[in-house]
């Protein structure tokens, strides 16, 4: 009796998917999704705004936040994106 081998790769992939459809700060669905410059990580606009007021760095990669860009705004102006 040998134990069935498990693949850890599948687990990593499902985590990445989860990150993509939830805001990493509130762990809820996106409310006005926005991305950070220059690292392009995504958060709710309200979540990252509040975070940046206490700590001006990305919660995921710790890079300094240069600016917060609302994706909703970008959709209306393709010239900017
Ligand atoms: Zn959020
Ligand atoms: Zn980042």
UniProtKB/TrEMBL annotation:
<keyword id="KW-0862">Zinc</keyword>
<dbReference type="InterPro" id="IPR001841">
    <property type="entry name" value="Znf_RING"/>
</dbReference>
<keyword id="KW-0808">Transferase</keyword>
<dbReference type="GO" id="GO:0061630">
    <property type="term" value="F:ubiquitin protein ligase activity"/>
</dbReference>
<dbReference type="Pfam" id="PF13923">
    <property type="entry name" value="zf-C3HC4_2"/>
</dbReference>
<feature type="domain" description="RING-type">
    <location>
        <begin position="23"/>
        <end position="62"/>
    </location>
</feature>
<keyword id="KW-0479">Metal-binding</keyword>
<dbReference type="InterPro" id="IPR017907">
    <property type="entry name" value="Znf_RING_CS"/>
</dbReference>
<dbReference type="InterPro" id="IPR013083">
    <property type="entry name" value="Znf_RING/FYVE/PHD"/>
</dbReference>
<dbReference type="GO" id="GO:0008270">
    <property type="term" value="F:zinc ion binding"/>
</dbReference>
<keyword id="KW-0804">Transcription</keyword>
<dbReference type="GO" id="GO:0006513">
    <property type="term" value="P:protein monoubiquitination"/>
</dbReference>
<keyword id="KW-0805">Transcription regulation</keyword>
<keyword id="KW-0863">Zinc-finger</keyword>
<protein>
    <recommendedName>
        <fullName>RING-type E3 ubiquitin transferase</fullName>
        <ecNumber>2.3.2.27</ecNumber>
    </recommendedName>
</protein>
<dbReference type="GO" id="GO:0000209">
    <property type="term" value="P:protein polyubiquitination"/>
</dbReference>
């Amino acid at each position: 009796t040998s134990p069935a081998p498990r693949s850890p790769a599948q687990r990593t992939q499902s985590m990445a998917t989860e990150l993509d459809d939830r805001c990493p700060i509130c762990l809820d669905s996106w409310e006005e999704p926005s991305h950070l410059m220059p690292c392009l990580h995504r958060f709710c606009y309200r979540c990252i705004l509040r975070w940046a007021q206490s700590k001006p760095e990305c919660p995921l990669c710790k890079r300094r936040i240069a600016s917060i860009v609302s994706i909703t705004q970008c959709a209306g102006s393709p010239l900017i994106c």
